Amino acid sequence: MPALFRPLTLRDLTVPNRVWMSPMCTYSAESGERAGTPTDCHLVHYASRAAGGVGLVMVEATAVRSDGRISPWDLGLWADAQTPDFKRLAKAISAAGAVPAIQLAHSGRKGSLERPWRGGAPLAVSDGGWPTVGPSAIAFPGYPRPTAADRSEMANLVASFASAARRALEAGFEVVEVNAAHGYLLQSFLSPISNRRTDEFGGSLVNRARFVLEVLDAVRAIWPQHMPVFLRISTTDWIAEDPADSREGWTVADSIQLALWAREHGVDLLDGSSGGVEPKPIPTARDYQTALAARIRSEASVAIAAVGRITEATWADELVRTGQADAVFIGRALLRDASWPNNAAAQLGVPPRFVEQYAYAL
Ligand SMILES: Cc1cc2nc3c(=O)[nH]c(=O)nc-3n(C[C@H](O)[C@H](O)[C@H](O)COP(=O)(O)O)c2cc1C
């Protein structure tokens, strides 16, 4: 059996293979009173990738508060009334053979935007946007300045992550992922570029990591001990790698330390993305990001899923087989081809999943 198609057990959960769907916003949630809830379009989109053979479907960034959406069209789990539609979604993913997982997120200073295909510009409050919040009153380039969260706002944010985790659990998701990547709220606390606080949540690495660890503790207190928690991080913000930029950014060494702390706070697997705290050029090499995940896996001895430009079955298998990653998240290739995993299985000589239903395709 190729390594890519071997099951992976995390706590009491066994994921049937190591080809997973990366979280990808579809900016297609209901609007008005049902804002944040998934539609039938989400159901088809996610269940078809599950039927296409992914072992785990990570549902896109789902906001823990309405002001934690990237756009007004994002999914959200900030109210109990939203849970039933997510239950339907989780059930559809399970029925099609994949583990239903969900990414919980708060957009922070990168929220209140138009949809990408409408230009993605900041939305004024009069156009359905909202004031944003961050660790410090420092704007992402080109976006409005956020309000610096005070301690009571931070406590409210932590509680919102916990409440959203409770709803995700009630909805039937088997894995919860906390999004601390891409310059959104949690990464903006981690990064010295966006966090200039002078209290115990700013300054040193241990202080900048404190808020993320508080969120993880709150989510872990809700999420049952036998079920896994994932953490998506930006392994680097590409500032340290830019010789023309002398500022202190977020480095791979910082990620290794965070990985160790996260494990102590109950995280079972890291999801190693990168960038997002500021616009930065990203290297063109195929392994631009997977190599960083491999380094963190080796130096921190944590389970990690690699992501980014993984488009070939043989390379995905090699990443797992050679111990560079425990699993791979596939993003855009799965948008192009919902059956990417089943095609990869066929290429690697493994029967696709649902072989009875799909036998005619062999
Ligand atoms: C349309 C789109 C939406 C995305 N939305 C999210 C998201 O909700 N949460 C997240 O952590 N990453 C998000 N990402 C990043 C992907 O999960 C993935 O890390 C990235 O696309 C690199 O993987 P790929 O080269 O396989 O596409 C998104 C990417 C795309 C293209």
Distance linking N and C termini: 18 Å
Would you identify the CATH architecture?
Alpha-Beta Barrel
Largest sheet at a glance?
8 strands, parallel, barrel
Backbone shape: globular
- Give the CATH topology: TIM Barrel
Question: Which features characterize this protein?
Answer:
binds flavin mononucleotide, alpha/beta, two-stranded antiparallel ribbon, 33% helix, 362 residues, eight-stranded parallel barrel, 15% strand, TIM Barrel, 13 strands, 11 helices
Describe the overall structure.
The chain is 33% helix and 15% strand. By secondary structure, it is α/β, with parallel strands linked by helices. The chain is globular. It has eleven helices and 13 strands. The chain has an eight-stranded parallel β-barrel with strand order 3-4-6-9-10-11-12-13, surrounded by seven helices. The chain has a two-stranded antiparallel ribbon with strand order 1-2. It has a two-stranded parallel sheet with strand order 7-8. It has a single domain, classed as TIM Barrel. The structure holds flavin mononucleotide. Flavin mononucleotide binds next to strand 4 and helix 9.
Strand and helix layout:
Elements: E1 8-10, E2 13-15, E3 19-21, H1 40-51, E4 56-63, E5 75-76, H2 83-95, E6 99-105, E7 133-134, E8 147-148, H3 151-171, E9 175-180, H4 185-190, H5 205-222, E10 229-234, H6 252-264, E11 269-273, H7 290-300, E12 304-307, H8 313-321, E13 327-330, H9 332-336, H10 340-347, H11 355-358
Parallel strand pairs: 3-4, 3-13, 4-5, 4-6, 6-9, 7-8, 9-10, 10-11, 11-12, 12-13
Antiparallel strand pairs: 1-2
Helix pairs in contact: 1-2, 2-3, 3-5, 5-6, 6-7
Bound molecules: flavin mononucleotide.
The site of flavin mononucleotide has 20 residues, from strand 4 and helix 9.
